[in-house]
Amino acid sequence: MSTVNNRSSPDRSAPLLGVRNLTKRYGSDGTAIDSVTFSAVAGEILGIIGPNGAGKTTLLEAVAGLLPVNSGDVFWRGEPLHADRRRDVLFYLPDGVRPYQDQSAQQVVAFVGSVFRRSKEDITSTIEALGLQPVLRKRVHALSKGYARRLMLTIGLLAPHDLLLMDEPFDGFDLRQTRDVMDLLRHQTAGGRTLILSIHQLPDAERVCDRFILLSAGQVRGSGGLAELRAQAGLRNGCLEDIFLALT
After folding, report:
1. 158-193: per-residue pLDDT in tens?
2. Which of 160, 178, 205 is the C-terminal boundary of a domain?
3. What pLDDT is attached to residue 5?
4. How far apart are CA 75 and CA 86, in angstroms?
5. Among 175, 130, 190, which Cα is nearest to 8's?
6. CA-to-CA distance for 82 and 104, rounded, in angstroms?
7. Which of 85, 92, 97, 155 has its Cα between 20 and 30 A from that of 144?
8. CA-CA-CA-CA torsion sign (200, 202, 207, 213)
């Protein structure tokens, strides 16, 4: 798999995105995310890891500016990034969404490509990279779960933003398809694009992410690369699953 990537070499000297003490409460139902703090640097894949109900989607929506928060701040290259400006620098791919359901996949991709002023070559190479060709004439509502996911990923990779937030990007793929998509995402980060992925399947996260934010009941229970997390958990050789269980 390959797709066009014209980004310059990443600068890992300072955080691209910073999140500080982000908190979201839902009335008497409790706190969905509680004082979450983390950062992401250019050219990395950062995994937001946790089971269903941990607060992963709420966190991504809050960072994207789609969900108002009770407190906390988001920064872009060290400067405050208000919610109404976040769409200028980051692009959010939600889970389970099928845009323009009565249109064909080809019409959706063409529309997105035109909005982002992508060349015909960029659009074609991205379609090919994600294997979307067999269903281009199908309407979005008729796509299987896996192909609907491919369509969303196509939209995300056509977006010009430096940072992509992806909610469960591998859901609906088999083992081989997941591996291919991981390779494609790695290709994106090689040129400096930053990816923040919400993942509940820990083996997938361990294979693709550079660093991890372990989220449980809306709180960060550990963060860093595997070596750092092993140190935090007191495990010399533990896998991500062992680490998560030890820290949560």
Report:
1. 999 999 999 999 988 999 999 999 999 999 999 889
2. 160
3. 41
4. 10
5. 190
6. 35
7. 92
8. positive
Give residues with Cβ within 8 angstroms of 191, minimum separation 6: 5, 6, 7, 8, 9, 10, 43
Start-to-end CA distance of the chain, whole Å, equals 37
Domain that holds residue 143: 98-160
CA contacts within 13 A on the Cβ side of 30: 8
Question: Does 79 share its domain with 156?
Answer: no
Q: Nearest CA to 72 among 26, 19, 114?
A: 19
CA dist 168 and 165 (Å) reads 10
Q: Please, are residues 139 and 178 in contact by the beta-carbon 8 Å criterion?
A: no
- The full DSSP string for 142-182 is GS-HHHHHHHHHHHHHHS--SEEEEESTTTT--HHHHHHHH
Q: What CATH number corresponds to the domain at position 52?
A: 3.40.50.300
